[in-house]
Amino acid sequence: MKSAFALSVLCGALSACDVPEPPAPTGGVPGLAEAGSGKCGRGFSVVESDYQSVNIALVSIEGDVLSESLATSAVESGGAKLSLSGDVVPVSALAAGPELPVLDRSAADPAIVWLSLAGGGVARRLSVATGFQANPHDFVQLSPEKAYVARFGHNHASGKEPFDRGSDLLIVDPRAGKLLGSLDLREALGSDAEQNLPRPEQVLVRDGFAYVLLGTLPLRSFTAATSSRLAVVDVTTDEIVSTLVLPDLRGCGGMDVSPDGAELAVFCSALTDSNGGSQAAFSGIALVSLSPMPKLLRTLRSELWGGAPIGFAGAYAASNKLLFTTFGRFSATGEAEAQDSLLELDLQRLSVEPLLESAGTPFTLGGVSCSVNCSTCVVADASRDGGVVHHYELGPTGDVASHAAVKVETRIGLPPRSIGRF
Amino acid sequence: MAQRCLPPSTLNRVARVAAVVWLGCASAHAQEQTIEVRGPLTRQGSRDEVAASTAVSGEKLRTPGATSADVLAGIPGVQVSRTGSASDLSTAAIRGATSAQTPVYLAGVRLNDDLTGSADLSTIPLSLMRRVEVYRGSSPLDLDRAGIGGAVLFEPRIDTTTRASAGLSLGSFGERSGFVMGSVAGERAGSSLLVAREAADNDYTFRDSSGAERRRSNADYSATSLWNVNRYRFSRRVSVLGVLHGYRREQGTPGLASLPDEAARTSSERLLAALDVRVACGAEPASDSCSLELVTSALAAKAALTDPLREVIPAAMAWSNGDRIEQSARLSWRPFEGVRLAPSLIVASERIRAGYSGQSNVEAARVLLRPTLAAELRVTESTSVLAAVAFENDSAKSSLAGERASRFTPNLRLGAKSRLNEWLEARANVGHSSRTPTLGELYGISAGVHGNAALVSERGPTADLGLRVQHDFPGLRLQADVFGFARSVSELIAYRQSGPATISPYNVGRARVVGLESALALELLSLVALNGAVTLLDPRDTTAGRAVRNDILPYRSRFVAMTEAELFAREPWRPIERLAAGARWLHRSSKYADAAGLLVVPHQSILDLYASAISRDQRLAVRVSVRNVLGTPEFDAIGLPLSGRSWHMSLEGRLP
């Protein structure tokens, strides 16, 4: 008895200097799981990250914080892995149902992770590694038993396990947690496949077709040397049925569908180096009609907004308005030479209105997401006031009617980086 | 004190070797001391009598299977971080500093590279070391950097008598190693050569992210070391010491627990050469009234990662080469009784080249000029004061970014030591030290990690106060010290996103650390030896405008305790000189692995057992150990588990 007591005292004394337990997630929102998406969706998910760890919060369409902390990074399996790494991003599609899928792009354990909207925390995960750094860039659910995962990573030593080539569309059964197949996207590159990899960035499903945005990057580098393209995949046969080359647009990294579903806006940075340098002649926005095969309507070049390279995020704010970010720039000695900008582009008048600049530190304006039907857009800002989400209410023509900076989380303090919808 | 307590017969049964190969050591060259096994229970650094310091030597470095990181982990104030087996990256940091703020010296030559600023302890095979010294808070004045955390110094194992010795060891996970050492010594000259080879499979098992047991693959390594030390005394006034060291290692790169690498391999090479010329310039050659020491050293280090499957990097190969040539001159002069002046000058030229195959490379160089003026004043018979000021003038340039204006950084030091009575001593130090940005920080490491030539040195004040007790009671020997310290540092270098896919460093952070360190050593009835070390740390991020709520600095345990108990017998029977068996327990409290405080590395307690038998005159020594007896899961970095339970044994012999 005495020895047990002594042992307890010893253990207690040793534990006293342990670091405090991290704040527990505030959990989910009962009722959210059952709530239908309606015409607006249920809200926005906000991924806060310093690239070491993450916190995921939920914000309503109106800009109210629903959950400060739906899930956070935590050490699991005796230190072998994290529940969520520091490199988590939302999927591009609106998430329906009781779970919120996010992409964990960690090199160690790339996976689709489903978070419980009602209870909070990780509900389940599906590894998409297949033996290499798969780097999933998007996930889109086609049915309860079928989904596509756009895997940006390429495996230089494939053939050791099924579906391990990479730079593909991985076909998965999200319900059963199984990998079903892989769609090789190199076919969409044609003769460019000899020197390039497809590098899929985003997938958007519309009327039985999946539109896969292919960054199209060289085999051994990340500086685009040829045009990006859109591959159209028949989701019933899992075959590429058409490809649209986006002429003279390179390094395309994001896209959004117009409110009427007839058009795509594709955002192309044309980055030449990892420091934000861009091939101005190849940077811009492609407007593509879907009928259903894609057809290029017009290309808007970066001169229209002063030549700054387009950021990775953009969205339709209205049928004739696009909201997107541009990258700022640091000098070689670390001074900010140009700030990130949030721009609103009027597609009819081809006029650009700046809405926001980063608060002194470039590369801190992050994700942009809009609920067009409810005239709301949110933008992640990692530096202003320690990190906020800007909530914009739009008027009937897509002009900004009101703006509020929302602090979505106060206990951890990680900066907001990207935005998803649910 | 120690010798007074020993029977004369014991004096003849002690170890005799104190190879003074230490460059710049005040007691170098001529003093081939005889080390007393029953000397002080715990030793202090020999290069600075005022700083808080700990030295480890002798049997404590001979435990089979123990690494340099393992030994440092048990020293007050030191925290180590390992990433796998004995051949994988491991680093040390003192008093809550970073590993880049903690210079590590091998034979007096700094090993910290100029890319990341860290020194990899895994390239320092412990079995080939004679002595390890750790200086906490303040660094010896003759070192080329005043580390913010302090300094760690390793001395190689070299004989200075005519002798041949050899050893081999075996252990779990395919561990095998051996060495041969030979030395000849005359009145004026001596030479010693040590060649060692070590290898291991490191194929230990661990639990992966799904909880399944997996065996580590592609983790093997083999390494070869060579040490050659030559000394020659030209006259009573002039002596020369030369050191030549080579190290080559080839190893697998096992990758993360959840995503092992199959084909990535790393090779590392190091070539170190140094020449130490010491001239007695006083009226009497044997006196220490005046001495001039000139040290020339050169270090060349190469590392290459071949990654045919692009498992680690987006290229087939990454490589880095660094070299440094350094010249120092140090005068030690006693103009009056009780006063010593020590002006010195260090000039160093350093260069790095690094890059990925097929991509742009980083090539940069720097010249460092460091004049120092130090003075020691013996105020009374029992009290001495030390004062030093050093100015670091650093100029750097790169092939891409050109030359940046030279930077001038002062470092200050004031210390005092006072023996309050026969058994109690007090020490106090205040100072201001700095860390010059590495060339990697100034000019970048890769396409994704850029540099910033406008960086300034991390810097800040430090202060400590300590008491040291040493007393021999009948049947009980006691030694203890306790130090309290506080330091702050500003202009900390952090990385931020500087492009869509790049990060670059900038000066932003501030931190302050307060703590308490204590060491205790007891010997009871010449039969039981107890050692303990405790470190309490409160490391806080005090950066203005910090967004995250947590302010506890990551990767630092706030409480570290080491306890070691050894039963030993001297001459239990005639052929045996010493027989010992002991246990060592190391506890580290939990720590954060991220700035936000969401990732918690849990507290870990590791128990090791060991035993040794040493024959008369140390002709033969057999040692065995079991590390992590309880098989406790252990890791310092997430996704990189350390080995569980392992056994090790070694056999060493020497003639005569």
List the helices and strands and how they pair.
The complex is a heterodimer of chains A (422) and B (656).
Chain A: H1 2-16, E1 43-49, E2 54-60, E3 65-72, E4 75-76, E5 81-82, E6 88-90, E7 99-104, E8 111-116, E9 122-127, E10 136-143, E11 146-154, E12 166-173, E13 178-184, E14 196-197, E15 200-206, E16 209-214, E17 217-218, E18 229-234, E19 239-245, E20 252-257, E21 263-268, E22 284-290, E23 294-301, E24 310-318, E25 321-326, E26 329-330, E27 336-338, E28 341-346, E29 351-357, E30 365-371, E31 376-381, E32 388-394, E33 400-406, E34 416-421
Antiparallel strand pairs in A: 1-2, 1-34, 2-3, 4-5, 6-7, 7-8, 8-9, 10-11, 11-12, 12-13, 14-17, 15-16, 16-18, 18-19, 20-21, 21-22, 22-23, 24-25, 25-28, 26-27, 28-29, 30-31, 31-32, 32-33
Chain B: H1 2-5, H2 8-11, E1 52-57, H3 68-73, E2 78-82, E3 90-94, E4 104-106, E5 109-110, E6 129-136, E7 150-156, E8 163-171, E9 175-185, E10 189-200, E11 205-207, E12 213-215, E13 221-233, E14 238-252, E15 265-280, E16 290-306, E17 317-336, E18 339-356, E19 361-378, E20 383-398, E21 402-403, E22 407-419, E23 424-435, H4 439-443, E24 458-473, E25 476-499, E26 502-524, E27 528-541, E28 559-570, E29 576-588, E30 591-592, E31 600-601, E32 604-615, E33 620-627, E34 635-637, E35 640-641, E36 646-655
Parallel strand pairs in B: 4-7
Antiparallel strand pairs in B: 1-6, 2-3, 4-5, 6-7, 8-9, 8-36, 9-10, 10-13, 11-12, 13-14, 14-15, 15-16, 16-17, 17-18, 18-19, 19-20, 20-21, 20-22, 22-23, 23-24, 24-25, 25-26, 26-27, 27-28, 28-29, 29-32, 30-31, 32-33, 33-36, 34-35
Describe this entry's structure for a reader:
The complex is a heterodimer of chains A (422) and B (656). Chain A is mainly beta and 422 residues long. The longest helix of chain A has 15 residues. In chain A, 4% of the residues lie in helices and 48% in strands. Chain A starts with a helix and ends with a strand. The mean pLDDT of chain A is 91. Chain A is globular. The N terminus of chain B is likely disordered. Chain B has a 22-stranded antiparallel β-barrel. A five-stranded mixed beta sheet of chain B has the order 1-6-7-4-5, with no helix packed on it. The longest helix of chain B has 6 residues. Chain B is 3% helix and 57% strand. With 656 residues, chain B is mainly β.
